[in-house]
Write a structure and sequence with these properties.
The protein has a single domain (5-164), classed as HybD-like (Rossmann fold). The protein is built from 4 helices and 5 strands; from the N terminus they run βαβββαβαα. It has helices spanning 20-35, 96-107, 132-150, 154-164, and strands at residues 5-10, 41-46, 62-69, 76-81, 114-120. A 5-stranded mixed beta sheet has the order 2-1-3-5-4. Strand 1 (5-10), helix 1 and strand 2 form a beta-alpha-beta unit. Helix 1 packs parallel to helix 3. The longest helix is centred in the C-terminal third of the chain and has 19 residues, at 132-150. The chain starts with a strand and ends with a helix. The mean pLDDT is 93.
């Protein structure tokens, strides 16, 4: 059975604050299990998004992409995203909007409503630990994640996205 919500957590745990996505994915997995919500959410953790991730959007009601960003406003941004026809230089690493576009082209229909949770990171050097600032930003993002997973609906998420832009 396909869960109605899919969460993509992107990042490399060996590259400092790039670990934010995987860290949040692990915390979210534990929280979902403890709350009895694990069957409603599929968690997908990867170093980067690829065209194959479009297949993971099939049968979903909502999609969320979590990633760290160096120039992201602190502590995070949460926004709705849409398919983009912008091309990438490679088929190996895609932005979330390109994954949505691949789905649109592959399926011949619109992808599920999708959002991005971009969490501010500071240092992304190989072998570095998560910075204190990134840990704090991730904690704030995790609070939002719990709200989103308790209320997985387009209207609720759109309202949360609008509220975080203020």
């Amino acid at each position: 059975m396909t869960a109605p919500l899919v969460v993509f957590a992107v990042g490399n745990p060996s590259r400092g604050d790039d670990a934010i996505g995987p860290v949040l994915c692990g915390q979210l997995a534990n929280w979902l299990e403890n709350e009895g919500l694990a069957e409603r959410v599929d968690l997908i953790e990867d170093f980067q998004l690829n065209i194959e991730h479009a297949l993971d959007l099939q049968g979903r009601e909502l999609a969320l992409f979590i990633d760290a960003g160096q120039d992201t406003p602190a502590p995070f941004i949460f926004a709705r995203i849409h398919p983009s026809t912008a091309t990438a230089h490679t088929t190996h690493a895609l932005p979330p909007e390109a994954v949505l576009q691949v789905y649109r082209r592959m399926e011949g229909k619109e992808p599920p409503p999708a959002f991005v949770l971009g969490v501010r990171g500071e240092k992304f050097d190989l072998g570095e630990p998560l910075t204190a600032a990134a840990g704090s930003h991730a904690a704030a993002a995790f609070e939002l994640l719990t709200v989103l997973c308790r209320r997985p609906s387009l209207s609720e998420w759109a309202g949360s996205a609008a509220a975080t832009r203020r």
